[in-house]
Amino acid sequence: MNIRAIVSHSPENDEARFCMEDIVLRETQGNELLVEIVASGICSTDLFFAHAAGGELGPFPRVLGHEGVGWVRAIGREVTVAAVGDAVSLSFASCTKCKACISFHPAYCHKFSAVNYGASAAYQRAGGEDLSGYFFGQSSFANYSNVLQESVVNISKWVDTEQDMYNYAALGCSFQSGSATVTKLASVGTEDSVVIMGLGAVGLSAIMAAKIQECSIIIGVDRFESRLQLARDLGATHVINTIEAGHDIAAAVKSITSGTGSTVTIDATGFMPLIKSGLDFTANKGKMIFLGVPPLDAEMNLNVVRFMATGKSILGSMEGDAIPSEHIPCMIDWFKSGKFPINRLVRTYKAEEFKLAMTDMKSGLTIKPVLVWK
Ligand SMILES: [Zn+2]
Ligand SMILES: [Zn+2]
């Protein structure tokens, strides 16, 4: 069928190249659902992949987009997760068979790259050239997509209005990654003092989740005053402006935590100086969690003996270790009860305005841009 999609082409002069194009979607196969995409969130990972390709990172040209919601219009013969007419939320895919998948940790699937970064031909352009799809099993930067069953969560019973769909658009990655990192991976409790560095959609979701868990101290760290204010509104008990704190964020955290440091530190920036500082100000026996993506060649030196004596753990967060079919309904439940006001992070744009939406996300003007496809 003929569809519209934002096609990602190989970058030129390190500039990502996106283009809205009319392309042809191939027929829906056995394990796929044809989804009419209502709205798709833009995540920084899309912009990362628009600059990177080759090997495990997949080829150009392709259709990105890994947060979306839509209506099921057709299903393949093997599909059981949803039926025609259902509303679905789209998240990451997993192989379902490896050791991580069968032990209920699909975000750490041993085949995560192969399954999610998509190299299979899913579309054709007018000239007959193949385009890749299946990005995170969904490639939701399009008005229709064939989505892998493993990426689909049925949310029909929680959709009351069109606005619900816009608010739910980013549940599949940003909101899930931030909140599940707090509730599942870090498994925080009331005694915890949590630092969250980087207050975009991921970091602010983490702030809201820490409030839901009633953590005694919740510290938001960012360089934008507007985001720090929003973090306060959403549950941060303290905020640190990195520009004002200069190089001494560690001192600011220690002063708030009576000299102990944070029991859980979550980095959602991928900025190495902050990550190094975070590991330093994390309390003994505390957890340092990597969630933001640094440059691919980023490395860290560690004095092993000194680190050993602290008893700290370093954890890598992939989607917060969430199981989407459990965590997405949980987030919707929080949202409906007013505890997870993701509507305050979302700004909608017409799909054609995707370049403006990306610019606004990069400048910090918009926390979570959501493209509306109708
Ligand atoms: Zn797996
Ligand atoms: Zn993402």
Explain how this protein is built.
InterPro entries: ADH-like_C, ADH-like_N, ADH_Zn_CS, GroES-like_sf, NAD(P)-bd_dom_sf. Helix 7 links the parallel strand 12 and strand 13. The protein has two domains: 197 residues, Quinone Oxidoreductase, Chain A, domain 1 (Alpha-Beta Complex), CATH 3.90.180; 141 residues, NAD(P)-binding Rossmann-like Domain (Rossmann fold, 3-Layer(aba) Sandwich), CATH 3.40.50.720. It has 374 residues and is α/β, with parallel strands linked by helices. Helix 5 packs across helix 6 and helix 9 runs parallel beside helix 10. The two termini are 17 Å apart. The model has no long low-confidence stretch (mean pLDDT 95). Bound molecules: zinc ion (2 copies). One zinc ion (ZN) binds next to helix 2.
Q: Key features?
A:
binds zinc ion, single chain, 2 domains, seven-stranded mixed β-sheet, 13 helices, globular, 374 residues, alpha/beta, Rossmann fold, six-stranded parallel β-sheet, Quinone Oxidoreductase, Chain A, domain 1
Structural class: alpha/beta
**Poorly predicted ranges:** none
Shape: globular
Q: What is the makeup of the main sheet?
A: 7 strands, mixed
> What is the rounded distance between the termini?
17 Å
CATH topology (level 3) name of the largest domain: Quinone Oxidoreductase, Chain A, domain 1
Tell me the β content: 25-35%
Number of domains: 2
CATH class of the largest domain: Alpha Beta
What portion of residues is helical? 25-40%
Bound molecules: zinc ion
The radius of gyration over CA amounts to 20 Å
Mean pLDDT: 95
> How many strand units?
18
User: CATH H level of the largest domain: which superfamily?
Assistant: Medium-chain alcohol dehydrogenases, catalytic domain
Keywords: Metal-binding, Oxidoreductase, Zinc
InterPro entries: ADH-like_C, ADH-like_N, ADH_Zn_CS, GroES-like_sf, NAD(P)-bd_dom_sf
Protein name: Enoyl reductase (ER) domain-containing protein
Domain Alcohol dehydrogenase-like N-terminal: 31-125
